[in-house]
Write a structure and sequence with these properties.
This protein is of the alpha/beta class. The chain folds into two domains: 292 residues, TIM Barrel (Alpha-Beta Barrel); 26 residues, no CATH class. 39% of the residues lie in helices and 14% in strands. It has a seven-stranded parallel sheet with strand order 1-2-3-4-5-6-7, sandwiched between helices. Helix 3 runs parallel beside helix 4, helix 7 packs parallel to helix 9 and helix 9 crosses helix 10. The chain is globular, with a radius of gyration of 21 Å. The structure holds iron/sulfur cluster. Iron/sulfur cluster (SF4) binds next to loops.
């Protein structure tokens, strides 16, 4: 296997196919209502990434039941994750959060999967999620949007938080043993390939459990859409995305689960890398295979990587122990 795929991981963990069912409930985020900023991230479309959920106007219970019905028919799924996807899904009073999360927990749901911003995940929310997890016997997956580790890029996309808030949120969620997933966009126009490699290293050092790799897409009505139409923004294209995805995966801890390998843009996107999910996956895998690459092939930099190379691995390969004595 070239990289650790989510479907395999879920099957190992739950013993059967597990399907995410999207739920839309929250309608804003701190980067739109003025708490962190106005106008939102420059790439964010009006549904806050919830365009794929056709049941988004139903109540939470109805959305999960409808979604599960379809997933049963289409994928023969038996277990489900209640996936709070659009906008910032921890951005509400604690009582409301508790009520809404519990509404999604029907028979067959094995995990709550909550997508949020790192600056909207407090200790109180972690305590609430732990309580729900214990009472309702469900796992907690928490997805934090990071997008880039480059502070200039975070500012360029008007993200409204820095890398510091992301690190704080990850460390907090890890203390509660939640499954932590980071979202990254690997081809933001102000990022270089070195930023993506640095991102893989930081996520590995933080021991996140999963990563959603996104390719940039641009939709009408966004700041990026205007810049793109007026020629101020030139996206990199598919080849560069594939190059960056290979580099990112090569440096990423091989135990981290890959939840996505590209974005799935809406049909009316002004720009996307122009590949289907299946084609992009195939291309990335083929290129990696051709170049003897796989997830973690360059994951040798933590735990005193260079000290280890000089004083442990070389001695082992010379048949010497780390104390200089010959082995055997
Ligand atoms: S991407 Fe998330 S944080 Fe940014 S504006 Fe959209 S909903 Fe808000």
């Amino acid at each position: 296997m070239i990289y650790r795929e989510l479907s395999h991981y879920l099957k190992e963990r739950y013993g059967t196919r597990v399907q995410r069912v999207s739920i839309s409930y929250f309608r804003t985020c701190p980067n739109r209502d003025g708490t962190a900023g106005f106008g939102g991230c420059t790439f964010c479309e009006e549904t806050g990434s919830g365009f794929g959920n056709k049941f988004r106007n139903l109540d939470v219970r109805a959305q999960i039941l409808e979604g599960m019905k379809i997933a049963r028919q289409k994928y023969k799924a038996e277990k489900f994750m209640a996936y709070f996807q659009s906008f910032t899904n921890t951005y509400g009073p604690l009582e409301e959060l508790e009520k809404v999360y519990n509404e999604a927990l029907v028979e067959g749901v094995v995990a709550l999967d909550i997508s949020t911003r790192p600056d909207a995940f407090s200790e109180e929310i972690a305590v609430l999620l732990k309580k729900i997890s214990d009472e309702r016997h469900v796992d907690i997956f928490i997805e934090f949007g990071l997008e880039s580790i480059n502070e200039n890029t975070l500012s360029y996309v008007n993200r409204g938080h820095s890398v510091g808030e992301f690190i704080d949120a990850v460390l907090r969620a890890k203390r509660y043993n939640f499954e932590v997933i980071a979202h990254v966009i690997l081809d933001l126009p102000t990022d270089t390939i070195e930023d993506e490699i640095g991102c893989a290293k930081i996520l590995s050092a933080l021991r996140v459990n999963g990563v959603k790799m996104h390719s940039l897409y641009i939709v009408k009505g966004t700041k990026m859409g205007i810049d793109y139409l007026e020629g101020r923004l030139k996206p990199f294209g598919a080849d560069e995305y594939i190059k960056r995805a290979r580099a990112f995966l090569s440096y990423l801890d091989p135990s981290i689960v890959i939840h996505r390998i590209i974005s799935t843009p809406p049909q009316n996107a002004l720009y996307s890398i122009g590949l289907t999910y299946t084609d992009a996956k195939k291309l990335i895998e083929e290129e990696m295979m051709k170049n003897s690459e796989y997830q973690g092939v360059k994951f040798d930099y933590l735990n005193g990587g260079n000290w280890r190379k000089k004083f442990v691995e070389r001695r082992n390969s010379d048949g010497l122990r780390s104390d200089g004595q010959r082995i055997g």
